[in-house]
């Protein structure tokens, strides 16, 4: 028996001690329970909102639904940019048993080149949210997909995921105008609206793809999903569908663009064709081009370096960024300048001894024909491309008036409505020279501008725009590449359209047009060989731009010069003269004289547009007739 | 409360229930040697626990059945132990204690290593056994038996013996290493000493000594133990690692609000954000699905059980019985406090299950064995000579 009964007193005392302590213990129990209860009140009542939010964000994941990028069509509905399904290899690490072994297997299955394996493995180790697939490789080939499918059971956690990838069916001929999309880089990411681009991997990098990025991209949707702690999606709680990007219809004509690139084949240069009435850019070619498709998934380093270091600069968009001296193609605009400022009339005749001399200056500014053209009026000045006439006219105008009048044609400014990365060119002025060189303007420099040399530098797009404005008799229409954004056509009057160019005597236009027509059709026309067999009235002007400056009285000898130092060949044209449907600017780098090396390219363009494509005015618009007339026209051409 | 009043109040408790006409005929419960009040409260607790477990296990009937079966065994153990007289426990205490210490030494030599600690002793094919679990009862029993023998309040030399009795198993368990259990064993035994009327002067001195020893203890902690303490102090420091448990459990409880999200509706619990949701952290499931109301109800139930236990302890026949009963019921409360405190983020994470709610057999059996001893002490009191 446990307690030997010592005394009753001891027992009573021990009982009292215990009961006192037990009561104390009960008090402690009460206090501690109260402590727990108050902690619970704190968590469940006072901080309830905070923990509710936290529990919701634990449970609910918002997944972005990227929109489908808008398609791009040419003016006739030819698809220029589409979204093709491609297949990506992804890996969910939580479902992979042995990562290293799986990777080894994949490398041998996919036949990966040695240098890609490291990057491939690195990508597989990137930190991700649990149960989120990590992208290992994009754009699998059919053979790779097949091999993966066969070995699927041995590769748990490896999945093939379909993704829409941009594809350009006419990548080589549309390269510069259309541009391309590429993966969003870190710098772009900083500027983007992350909500809108959540889930989007690609963004327009150049050209139309970049300029109309906003419309093409669309609006991202989202879905709310409930996930468990391991990130597995259990059900969809809500959904907001993405709004796909708008389809774009361009003003470009694939046939014209293709022709332009064929005409430039093997050369460096650019052809820009504009429909004067509408401002539609029908062709905007820069040669050589490149395959934009290889930029979509990311071009490999070697190919990119090859493109970058190519001496012909295939990545350079000459049509909008190439800045060239215009040579004599500036002369029609100088003539209009003279008429507007009233310093000359079409009838005024000057005598050309083969050179022009400034007062009090012994230097001779030479005509290209050393013995001179004799009596020259405005029409003849254009037809024979007389320099002396324009030295004199430029001198009479002075640089200030000349610069102002040329600027009215958009020269030296960004003229297009929706061309990404356009250069300004350079239309020199007194202020420009002071700022640039801190020197006064010398009268001799005005003469150079008058014949399209000296500081003057224009882009092919500017030259084509000025030609279109000329063809419109001064009515301005801003050139543009987009025709319709979604279903909405571009507004007729684009913002920032310059003021129309008015002549006090509208007959002045005809004088200039006649002169330009004689370039091709006149007995003395510089491009009379090109003008043979014309079935419509075509106006043009040749230009030969010096790359290599000659000293006074030096003779130019093409053979002696290295190819890259030869003159650029230029030609501007529009047709038909009485109702212009197309204006063209052609530049062929280092080709030599414009009348012999550029004029026929311009004619091929106008022929194609007017005859083959049936845009001759006054004819029945129906396709049959157009085709007939084009066929007839071709036959006629062949007969000659 | 003045001390005199207090004693008078305490002494009003019947050492022996007043004889009545019915004294000759024992009730059914008295024949079973069970306390009906405590039994009903415990069954209520276990029933509530099974409901929560059903939700916490992801509505798996088999888990609940397995647990119910374990409770069946545990209640049987309780009922059997209640049949023995306290004198038997008094007599067997030294033997159980000695055997336990021997087994702890055996574990140290040949024990299985599980979860980075040697805790299991196995006779292959027969039984797998955690001696430290048995020491949770054997140690306080031994201390109570000793102090019951020497009489209370304990003298200093008696305390030295007590320290030895407590120290040996505690150090052995801590060496496994299983700090959590060793602290629980130590506290169960220390409660006996405190209930025995350890003088306040000595309590103060020990407290000071303990405070001085804390840095020493810190140095000797295993790295995972230190991490637990550090994480407790700042759970956000490692939200995906060690802090995850606490962040998720407080989130579960807090998001439950006053009324809870409803049975099976707790997203934290059902979507597996809550770790250990059917074992150590099961109360967070209750908190999330039944809210503050459910939590307070559970705490109240525990409190009533503790009160009843203390009442029974106070009514025990002798010092040994009182000390043992008091220790058992207060240890029970410590489990509750430590578990709820840990899950709600006011105590560091230590592996203490919620008594009679958490899934798992060993702790339930130990706890109900304790309640069996408690009931025995209560039920056999009139059979004892005075």
Automatic annotation (TrEMBL), chain A:
Residues 269-604 form the Penicillin-binding protein transpeptidase domain. It is found in: Cell inner membrane; Cell membrane; Membrane. InterPro entries: Beta-lactam/transpept, Beta-lactam/transpept-like, PBP_dimer, PBP_dimer_sf, PCN-bd_Tpept, Penicillin-binding_protein_2. Its EC number is 3.4.16.4. It is an enzyme of class 3 (hydrolase). It is a single-pass membrane protein. The chain crosses the membrane at residues 21-42. Pathway: Cell wall biogenesis; peptidoglycan biosynthesis. Residues 614-640 are annotated as: Disordered. Keywords: Carboxypeptidase, Cell inner membrane, Cell membrane, Cell shape, Cell wall biogenesis/degradation, Hydrolase, Membrane, Peptidoglycan synthesis, Protease, Transmembrane, Transmembrane helix. It catalyses: Preferential cleavage: (Ac)2-L-Lys-D-Ala-|-D-Ala. Also transpeptidation of peptidyl-alanyl moieties that are N-acyl substituents of D-alanine. The active site is at residue 328. Residues 65-237 form the Penicillin-binding protein dimerisation domain. Belongs to the transpeptidase family. MrdA subfamily. Catalyzes cross-linking of the peptidoglycan cell wall. This is Peptidoglycan D,D-transpeptidase MrdA. It comes from Halomonas cibimaris. The gene is mrdA.
TrEMBL record, chain B:
Pfam families: FTSW_RODA_SPOVE. Pathway: Cell wall biogenesis; peptidoglycan biosynthesis. Its main location: membrane. It is an enzyme of class 2 (transferase). It catalyses: [GlcNAc-(1->4)-Mur2Ac(oyl-L-Ala-gamma-D-Glu-L-Lys-D-Ala-D-Ala)](n)-di-trans,octa-cis-undecaprenyl diphosphate + beta-D-GlcNAc-(1->4)-Mur2Ac(oyl-L-Ala-gamma-D-Glu-L-Lys-D-Ala-D-Ala)-di-trans,octa-cis-undecaprenyl diphosphate = [GlcNAc-(1->4)-Mur2Ac(oyl-L-Ala-gamma-D-Glu-L-Lys-D-Ala-D-Ala)](n+1)-di-trans,octa-cis-undecaprenyl diphosphate + di-trans,octa-cis-undecaprenyl diphosphate + H(+). Its EC number is 2.4.99.28. Keywords: Cell inner membrane, Cell membrane, Cell shape, Cell wall biogenesis/degradation, Glycosyltransferase, Membrane, Peptidoglycan synthesis, Transferase, Transmembrane, Transmembrane helix. The chain crosses the membrane at residues 37-56, 68-86, 156-175, 181-198, 290-311, 323-350, 356-377. It is a multi-pass membrane protein. It is found in: Cell inner membrane; Membrane. The keyword Iron does not apply. Belongs to the SEDS family. MrdB/RodA subfamily. Peptidoglycan polymerase that is essential for cell wall elongation. This is Peptidoglycan glycosyltransferase MrdB.
């Amino acid at each position: 028996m446990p307690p030997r009964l010592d005394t009753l007193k001891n027992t009573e005392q021990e009982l009292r001690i215990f009961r006192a302590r037990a009561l104390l213990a009960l008090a402690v129990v009460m206090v501690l329970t109260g402590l727990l209860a108050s902690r619970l009140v704190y968590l469940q009542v006072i901080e309830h909102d905070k923990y509710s939010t936290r529990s919701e964000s634990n449970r609910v994941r918002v997944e972005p639904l990227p929109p489908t990028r808008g398609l791009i069509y040419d003016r006739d509905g030819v698809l220029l940019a589409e979204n093709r399904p491609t297949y990506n290899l992804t890996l969910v690490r939580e479902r992979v048993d042995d990562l290293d072994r799986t990777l080894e297997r994949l490398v041998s299955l996919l036949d990966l080149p040695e240098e890609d394996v490291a990057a491939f493995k690195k990508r597989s180790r990137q930190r991700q949210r649990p149960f989120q697939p990590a992208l290992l490789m994009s754009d699998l080939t059919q053979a790779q997909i097949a091999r993966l499918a066969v070995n699927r059971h041995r590769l748990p956690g490896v999945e093939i995921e379909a993704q829409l990838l941009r594809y350009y069916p006419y990548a080589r001929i549309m390269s510069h105008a259309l541009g391309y999309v590429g993966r969003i880089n870190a710098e772009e990411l900083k500027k983007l609206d992350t909500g809108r681009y959540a889930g989007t991997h690609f963004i327009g990098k150049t050209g139309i793809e970049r300029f109309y990025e906003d419309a093409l991209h669309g609006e991202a949707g989202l879905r709310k999903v409930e996930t468990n702690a391991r990130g597995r999606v259990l059900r969809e709680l809500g959904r907001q569908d993405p709004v796909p990007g708008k389809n774009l219809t361009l003003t470009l004509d694939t046939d014209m663009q293709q022709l332009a690139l064929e005409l430039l084949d093997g050369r460096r240069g650019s052809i820009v064709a504009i429909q004067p009435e509408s401002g539609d850019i029908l062709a905007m070619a820069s040669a050589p081009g490149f395959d934009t498709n290889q930029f979509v998934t990311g071009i490999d380093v070697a190919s990119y370096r090859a493109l970058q270091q190519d001496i012909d600069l295939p990545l350079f968009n000459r049509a909008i960024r190439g800045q060239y001296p215009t040579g004599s193609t500036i002369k029609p605009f100088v003539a209009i300048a003279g008429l507007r400022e009233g310093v000359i009339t079409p009838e005024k005749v000057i005598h050309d001894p083969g050179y022009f001399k400034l007062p009090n200056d012994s230097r001779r500014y030479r005509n290209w024909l050393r013995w001179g053209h004799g009596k020259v009026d405005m029409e003849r000045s254009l037809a024979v491309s007389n320099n002396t006439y324009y030295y004199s006219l430029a001198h009479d105008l002075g640089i200030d008036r000349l610069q102002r009048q040329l600027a009215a044609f958009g020269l030296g400014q960004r003229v297009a409505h929706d061309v990404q990365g356009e250069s300004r060119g350079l239309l020199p002025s007194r202020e420009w020279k002071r700022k640039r060189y801190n020197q006064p303007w010398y009268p001799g420099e005005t003469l150079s501008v008058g014949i399209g040399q000296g500081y003057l530098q224009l882009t092919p797009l500017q030259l084509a725009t000025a030609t279109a404005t000329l063809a419109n008799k001064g009515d301005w229409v801003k050139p543009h590449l987009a025709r319709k954004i979604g279903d909405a056509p571009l507004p007729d009057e684009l913002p920032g359209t310059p003021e129309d160019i008015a002549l006090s005597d509208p007959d002045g236009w005809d004088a200039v047009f006649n002169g330009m027509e004689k370039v091709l059709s006149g007995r003395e026309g510089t491009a009379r060989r090109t003008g043979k067999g014309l079935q419509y009235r075509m106006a043009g002007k040749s230009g030969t731009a010096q790359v290599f400056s000659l000293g006074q009285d030096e003779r130019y000898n093409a053979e002696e010069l290295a190819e890259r130092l030869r003159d650029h060949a230029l030609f501007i044209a529009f047709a038909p003269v009485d109702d212009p449907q197309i204006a063209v600017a052609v530049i062929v780098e280092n080709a030599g004289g414009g009348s012999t090396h550029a004029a026929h390219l311009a004619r091929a363009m106008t022929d194609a547009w007017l005859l083959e494509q049936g845009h001759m005015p006054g004819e029945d618009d129906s396709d049959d007739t157009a085709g007939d007339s084009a066929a007839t026209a071709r036959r006629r051409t062949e007969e000659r | 409360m003045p001390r005199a009043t207090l004693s008078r109040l305490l002494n009003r408790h019947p050492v022996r229930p007043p004889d009545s006409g019915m004294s000759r005929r024992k009730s059914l419960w008295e024949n079973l040697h069970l306390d009906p009040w405590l039994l009903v409260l415990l069954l209520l607790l276990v029933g509530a626990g099974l409901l929560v477990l059903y939700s916490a296990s992801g509505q798996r009937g088999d888990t609940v059945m397995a647990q119910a079966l374990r409770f069946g065994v545990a209640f049987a153990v309780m009922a059997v132990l209640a049949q023995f007289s306290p004198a038997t426990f008094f007599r067997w205490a030294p033997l159980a204690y000695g055997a336990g210490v021997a087994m702890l030494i055996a574990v140290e030599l040949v024990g299985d290593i599980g979860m980075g600690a040697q805790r299991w002793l196995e006779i292959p094919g027969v039984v797998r056994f955690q001696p430290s679990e048995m020491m949770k009862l054997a140690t306080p029993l031994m201390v109570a038996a000793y102090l019951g023998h020497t009489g209370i309040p304990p003298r200093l030399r008696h305390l030295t013996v007590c320290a030895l009795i407590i120290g040996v198993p505690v150090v052995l368990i801590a060496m496994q290493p299983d700090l959590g259990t060793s602290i629980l064993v130590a506290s169960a035994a220390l409660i006996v000493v405190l209930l025995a009327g350890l003088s306040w002067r000595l309590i103060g001195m020990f407290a000071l000594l303990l405070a001085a020893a804390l840095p020493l203890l810190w140095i000797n902690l295993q790295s995972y133990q230190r991490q637990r303490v550090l994480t407790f102090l700042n759970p956000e420091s490692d939200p995906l690692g060690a802090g995850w448990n606490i962040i998720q459990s407080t989130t579960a409880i807090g998001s439950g609000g006053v009324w809870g999200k409803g049975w099976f509706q707790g997203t934290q619990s059902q979507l597996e954000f809550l770790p250990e949701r059917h074992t150590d952290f099961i109360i967070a499931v209750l908190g999330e699905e039944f809210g503050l109301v459910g939590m307070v109800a559970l705490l109240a139930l525990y409190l009533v059980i503790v009160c009843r236990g203390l009442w029974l302890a106070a009514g025990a026949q002798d010092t040994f019985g009182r000390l043992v009963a008091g220790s058992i019921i207060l240890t029970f409360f410590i489990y509750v406090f430590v578990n709820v405190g840990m899950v709600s983020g006011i105590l560091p994470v230590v592996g203490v299950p919620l008594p009679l709610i958490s899934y798992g057999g060993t702790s339930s059996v130990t706890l109900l064995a304790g309640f069996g001893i408690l009931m025995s002490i209560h039920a056999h009191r009139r059979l004892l000579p005075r």
